[in-house]
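Q: Please design a sequence for this.
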């Protein structure tokens, strides 16, 4: 729960908001959550929804492969030079929380090579419900769970569910097939999170990431204000 302290920090203020050359760096948003919940699919949908408006880059974290980056490249959600993979080795949460140097270097290299950027999305190599990002790496974090993972996840909580700046309950289209109770998931998520927002999402429909894209627009606006 150590990431919860600076919850009340002003959204748009960070000590290192400027790059060494004095220009403003991109706002960095992390996406965490269990394997298969839909992080990469959400990154892809956000790139499609926002790439005409903003200059975007993506960093993916995979344990031993570059599969997430390769998916995004195949889908051509952004030009290839805007997508970087970090291979994290055994403990994916370490690379986004404890030793963030490889990720910071990837973000900074992207800003050097294809910047100026408005937004960098950092996808964690999902391992479990407790993997949260260091505030030194990202300015805001999205936690992605899905209805197929069980409708008791919002109630059981954990730091990702309870404290992420945005919780996405993804794959709502699957609820009838897996017997998940969406209303209960939404109510449990709200109870665990207080005022923090929850987005119920299905990427199978048209414009499925619309609500989350709107939230990201708000973060970019706050950052650049
Ligand atoms: N039915 C359904 N499938 C989804 C949705 N979002 C993602 N998926 C699928 O779920 C699988 C895992 O998604 P992925 O983004 O790779 O998960 P990640 O491991 O969290 O990055 C893929 O086959 C996606 O196509 C959704 O909203 N509905
Ligand atoms: Mg992924």
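A: Design:
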């Amino acid at each position: 729960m150590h990431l919860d302290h600076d919850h009340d920090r002003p959204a748009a203020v960070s000590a290192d908001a400027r790059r060494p050359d004095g220009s403003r760096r991109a706002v960095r948003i992390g996406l965490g959550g269990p394997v298969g919940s839909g992080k990469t699919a959400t990154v892809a949908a956000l790139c499609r929804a926002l790439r005409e408006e903003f200059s975007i880059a993506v960093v993916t974290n995979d344990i031993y492969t570059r599969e997430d980056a390769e998916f995004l490249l195949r889908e051509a959600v952004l030009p290839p030079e805007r997508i970087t993979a970090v291979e994290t080795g055994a403990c994916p949460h370490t690379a986004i929380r404890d030793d963030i140097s490889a990720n910071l270097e990837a973000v900074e290299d992207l800003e050097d090579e294809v910047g100026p950027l408005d937004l960098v999305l950092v996808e964690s190599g999902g391992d479990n419900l407790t993997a949260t990002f260091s505030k030194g790496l990202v300015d805001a974090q999205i936690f992605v769970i899905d209805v197929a993972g069980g409708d008791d996840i919002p109630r059981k909580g954990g730091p990702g569910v309870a404290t992420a700046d945005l919780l996405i309950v993804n794959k709502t289209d699957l609820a009838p097939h897996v017997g998940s109770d969406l209303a209960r998931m939404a109510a449990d998520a709200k109870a665990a999170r207080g005022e923090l927002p929850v987005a119920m999402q299905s990427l199978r429909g048209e414009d499925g990431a619309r609500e989350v894209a709107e939230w990201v627009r708000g973060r970019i606006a706050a950052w650049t204000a």
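Q: Thanks. Anything notable?
A: Residues 1-15 have pLDDT under 50 and may be disordered. The chain has one domain: 25-224.
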